[in-house]
Amino acid sequence: MELPAESILSQLDRIVDSQAFRNAGRLRAFLRFVVERTLAGRQDEIKEYSVGVEVCGRPSSFDPKTDPIVRVDAVRLRSRLETYYGTEGAADEVRIVLPKGAYVPTFRQAVRGRAAEHEVKTLAVLPFVNLSPPGEQEALADSFTEELIHSLSRLEQLHVIARSSVFQFKGRSEDGREIGRALGADHVLEGNLRVAGGRLRITAQLIDSGHGWVVWSEKYECAWENVFSVQDEIVASITDALRIRLAGETGSAIFTHVTNDAEAYADYLRGRYYWNQRTPEALRTSILCYERALQRDPDCAPVHAGIADTLTVMALNDQEPTLKVMPRARSSARKALELRPGWPEGLASLGCVKSIFDWNWEGGARDLEEAIRRQPGSPTAHYLFAIISLAPRGLWREAIAAMHAALRLDPVSPLLLRDLGMIHFLRGAWDDAAAAWREAEQLAPAFRGCLFWRARMAIEMGRCDEAIAALERRLESGPANTRVLATMAYAWARSNDQGNARRILDDLTARSAMGRVPPLDFATAWLGLGNWDQALQWLEKACEERAAPLYQFGVDPIYDPIRAHPRGEALRLAMGLPG
After folding, report:
1. Which domain holds residue 550?
2. What is the mean pLDDT of residues 539-555?
3. Helix (H) or strand (E) holding 571
């Protein structure tokens, strides 16, 4: 089947923007040269001489017989393509191949079905249905699904759709086969879980999305108080069956359980459940669950990493002062890596701490890159690398490539699309930002996460009325949020309505007498009012507190008016951000 040129060019852009080709400028140029010449019907121009001169920069006197640079680069290019399609490009539909002994590429559709025994297969693990009596077991069912996703994602030649995409279908009545097709998954794993009478019962079945066949099914039962005497059997049995059916491999399962204490494990699962809720109260509850787990098993690395991640979210949301929570986040991430050296999740946790708290951007980037190298199938690692490390330093091309890598692993996540739009907004690509937010809202009509950033962009475009309306809808969708209120003051001020802006500023001041209002909120309001001295005073206070949300200081257009001010420059230097 002949592939459309648009599909091939789109795949070319995906490859050259990938992590595999990130530091390979000449190989990117080589690939683009041969692909574009081929699509233009100019294959006869793809000669060793032309590549040497036009791609490798050799002079017109270049002699391929004495200078092997093109042949060497062709070997390197084939190797990079293999690396790309074996990791972040595993689920790509279009394959660009540079045949051995030739420089003219070939293009083909990814092989599906039995002919692709060694092709990467895609699996969606749907949320296990909770059949337990009313209570907290919903948390156990959801987190059990998440743990299974984490386990299976470590398998080679198996691409597992991430949690946030599959959980979009929780509680919906679609057939598993249809969901698999919507997610682009070859197979779907679905099941149910019941905890009652001190016993755990699980039923699981594997469905072929193409035909609707039940490929495999099994039932498991164990006493909850002895869950870890059989938990390996439960997850390993599912994992091994999937390895045989999907990856063409045999051997022992690769699942490493969280802890050997059943009650600690239950509290860990509850902690993960509440962490995924992301509300202030849920995050506090998550910490309490993790702390209960540590009382029973103080050497549980995933619990320490969970605490680090939860505290980091609290700091980024300005829910708690950064100096109050991030030292513990740092020690928890380090403890997780002490217990499990080189563990990707621990590396990602520590990389975030180094970036937004220590302002050690290079060290944070190294940890996040190593997490990706060790677990390329983790959408979270790609996402964090983009948001926490690359975008704050203005590395837009790399940040967008990392976000696309995350989205290939987590294709229908409104959160990822929201933050892809945020990156586009920060770099001034407003049309691209709007497109990402529109897609997020189409996938999840009830999702309100884009409203804040839509408002921010509307302000920059001079459409302050539109921004204020979006912020009012954002306030209606959840509890009072001082960041949203401060941004509304900013919007009123930018629309030349200083009366409403000062009314909100007075409200923030009154709130600060009764509880915490982050310094950045006051800075935002004063920036709108054009009082640079007041704005800088509050920004300096935020810097003294090492406020985590300040990590975007170098790229957020809200700070453009004061970034070049000597005091603004001092802030940038204090944070170690590039100029």
Report:
1. 448-579
2. 97
3. helix 566-575
